[in-house]
């Protein structure tokens, strides 16, 4: 730059030293502007309260749950969890199976005796490369999805992660009697005529009869068996969907396993609060009460973990 200034000075008959001094000395206005730009505004904010934290966590819960239809409860298993692992060597499959069973027992998801002979109600299948991309595994008319309603099939088919997961549910009356989907509207109308609806209890419960979690085998490479088992736990034991990659999450969760290279090593505080809170609540509780209870449980567990 200085060479250019000198050359310009020679050409127009002005001393080169004058141009060099002028360039080296910024104007007073420029100095004041720079000083102003260097000033930093510091905003002091009060730490988030426990209630604020619960609100953040509740918002996250509503974003990852597949919301039940109006007037229905959040689905949970009534029977003991009995997983079956397909598509992996036996040794690896046994590790994942044992981990899912351990999670279910530790987090209170078994409402029946898990030691009794059981029928497999959780399928975790690893799909080999020759089956193609996830979009090739299932279509709207696939037999595997034939028992699902239209909106439930769309949930499954619109996933973008290398996973396809769903729950098979059964609506039951407060007395435990199964209610066919086609009869649900008539049942609900009858209930409304017989008694006023309660904000604390629903006249029906939603039972998860079975769950399926299909994972692309190639995408599972590099993940630990614990990560895969804990991810499957979250997708099977609760009606959770995939995480929206654009969302800024309020807490860490194993549900980001196929999106985040630095995903958690296993179930997080939030994940454990979600499952334990879900299965400790009354089966007749409205969804909002579930979400509030889970958020409160997660906030309390975070505080307990933070204490020395």
Question: In short, what is this structure?
Answer:
The protein is an alpha/beta fold and 308 residues long. It contains twelve helices and five strands. Strands 1, 2, 3, 4 and 5 form a five-stranded mixed β-sheet that branches.
Description:
The structure is a single chain. With 308 residues, the chain is of the alpha/beta class. The chain has helices spanning 2-12, 16-24, 28-38, 50-64, 90-106, 134-137, 150-157, 184-194, 217-220, 225-237, 269-280, 287-306, and strands spanning 76-77, 83-86, 122-127, 163-173, 204-216. Strands 1, 2, 3, 4 and 5 form a five-stranded mixed β-sheet that branches. Helix 4 (50-64) crosses helix 12, helix 5 (90-106) packs across helix 10 and helix 11 packs across helix 12. The termini are far apart.
- Which stretches are low in confidence, meaning pLDDT under 50 for 5 or more residues running? 1-24, 186-197
How would you spell out the order of helices and strands? Answer: HHHHEEHEHHEHEHHHH
Structural class: alpha/beta
Proportion of residues in helical segments: 40-55%
Oligomer: single chain
Proportion of β residues?
Answer: 5-15%
Which word captures the global form?
Answer: globular
* Main sheet makeup: 5 strands, mixed
Task: From the alpha carbons, calculate the radius of gyration and give it in angstroms.
Answer: 29 Å
